Fold this sequence. Notes:
2 domains, Dihydrodipicolinate Reductase, domain 2, 23% strand, alpha/beta, six-stranded parallel β-sheet, 15 strands, Rossmann fold
Amino acid sequence: MKVAVIGVGNMGSRYACMVQDGKVDGFELVAITRVRGKYKEMLQDSIDAGLPVYEDFEALFDDVENGNLQLDAVIIATPHYTHEKIAVRAMNNGLHVLSDKPSGVYSRQARLMDEAAEKSGKVFSMVFNQRTLPIYKSLKEIVSSGKYGSLKRFNWVVTDWYRPEKYYSSSSWHATWDKDGGGVLLNQCPHNLDLLQWICGMPVVVQGFCKEGHFHNIEVEDDVTAYLEWDNGATGVFITSTGDAPGVNRLEISLEEALIVCENGEIRIGEVYPEMQMKEAEYRKTSEDYFKKIKGTWTTIIPDKEDDPYGKVLQAFADECYGKGKSIAPGQDGRKSLLLSNAIYLSSWEKRQVEIPEQGSEKEIAFEQLFEKHINELSDKD
């Protein structure tokens, strides 16, 4: 299949080189857009051999629509605001789409991408490469199996996204509402929010607390705390920042019959039953020992490492395009993580709990409109 990479910067150059170097079975690189400096050097042999380089995605699609460029799929690695426009135009031209995270800045963009994909019947996938990591795959399997019961509590402190001031000042679009669309939630944490909902399901209510420019001289958030609720009554806290040092990445998932702790490449599971010889709820209702603390019976799992997560994502996308496999993350899941981050923002701005709307409902449309009203005001202010 003939593939174009749209947006050949840091990540786009990686994807383009993988296809160029034959590391994705069934894919051939036939066009790229906006390549500069060191990224151009990485693809120079292909460019010298005639690989078309377009100034922007409009010029590329003009050639597709005029019959001057034959394509089967595109990989999108452009700034966040443009993902939806590119994806929808690609799908309208009958092309498969792999989009880098996030789907966009606001959830309406993700919804429009979903609708275009459904109408086109083409493959639509997201680059949620952390789903390939054995440690998160194991967590997903443990929680989904139901072996330890339903979710009770979720706590994730992920503050190892540390960034110095120079990171933000290195580009005019970094950390701006009008060009970047957000801070740590939108740039670093789409992976974490995707894993959150992939492993434990979508929360239904959030209360967000976002601090803009708390650690850096920026206008967007670099420090976030969010309270979460699920429809079964489970609760959770998600904390992230780019200004904590040293940072930590510690995920705790409390289920009815076990506590799971994920940190430093290990999964520790503390089970209730081996110690108590009964379920926790039964013990809680019948015990006459006022102060006994359940220590748990602990086991440790050390999952393998994944050396090529992006390669796994691109190859799975290619396999689905050929009808012989499934992508790592369907494009529709990009809408879920974006709804979640949008809800955290909206809650922080309005200083209230926000309900995460059901996809396809009238509440989703109202949610979209309210979120966009706020972010447009912030963009205009800047």
